[in-house]
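Weekly structure sync, notes
Attendees: PL (lead), two postdocs, one rotation student
Agenda item 3: pending single-chain targets
PL asked that the sequence for the first pending target be pasted directly into the notes so everyone works from the same version. It is reproduced below exactly as submitted, 326 residues in total.
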Amino acid sequence: MAKASSWETRIGRRIRLHDLHAFATVIQSGSISKAAVKLGVTQSAISQMVADLEATLGVRLLDRSARGAASTVFGEVLLRRGRAALDELRHGVEEISFLCDQTTGQVRVGCPESISSAVLPPIANLFFRQHPSAVLDVDHVNLGQLSPLLDRKIDLVIARGGRGFGGQEIPDEVDVRTLFEDELVVAAGPNSRWFNRRKIELADIVHERWILTEPGIWNHLVVAEAFAAHGLEMPNVSMRTLSVHMRTQLIATGDFITTLPRSVLRLYAERFSLKALPVDLPARPWPVSIITLKHRSLSPIVQRFIRCAEDVANGMDARPRSRKSS
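Predicted structure, written out during the meeting:
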């Protein structure tokens, strides 16, 4: 394998960016043939690029089999470091473009549905008013899955939780910045007999038709804690779903009860005539956070997006109010 002292003569002048890109595409696609189709070149061209990299580094980067191609331990190192290099170059090109025209650029955001359905829209509206030619790509990121961010496929994640994102300790490679504090509320629509009640105890609604998330999810844990604190069994659950749209539609048109983040209810309350019921739940912090990768240069347009998120968040803070003791 090439020694560090031979960087300039043997490696620095011989490793080409399009070879690194081709190698990364092979790993992502799982085969040389699929990578060739994706890049619009021949299989032999891809094979030659990989062979050139292997010859330069003096190690085998790919394990080839009838099932496709997979990286060796050496290939994993080159992929990880090469991806960072390509990502920095992409951001450099974006920054140059931004300096030429400060209204353009792309921001890639990952978030769960409860964020994309209520928190993200006002941020996007402000962002597009300031940068009308920018492009916002939004990917669904399930709770606890930060791999798209770690792999530099997205620029940032907006999610609920602090250091315990999705019930998991998030990696040290990321920065977590709280945007605002949200809280969980019990919600119902006009068809519920509890809609206009001024005082409701948990025991009153234990036998109603509830829509909750699956056990283990944060808002399910809060509901379970509340009922247990009052010596009650869990309520009747008619449906389990993470879908905000499903929950808001059903309580708007039926006699169901559900739990929602207050930020979600704020957006949908007037549209669907929904209301937070006067029910006490445990006051537990539920921050909405922006998560970015440490030691990664963010393009100017991504920084502008984060600034818009912070501006919007200033008006969304729903810190839990003081509650009576159980």
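Discussion points:
- The longest strand covers residues 174-182.
- The chain has three domains: 4-87, 101-182+286-313, 184-276.
Action: rotation student to compare against the earlier draft before next sync.
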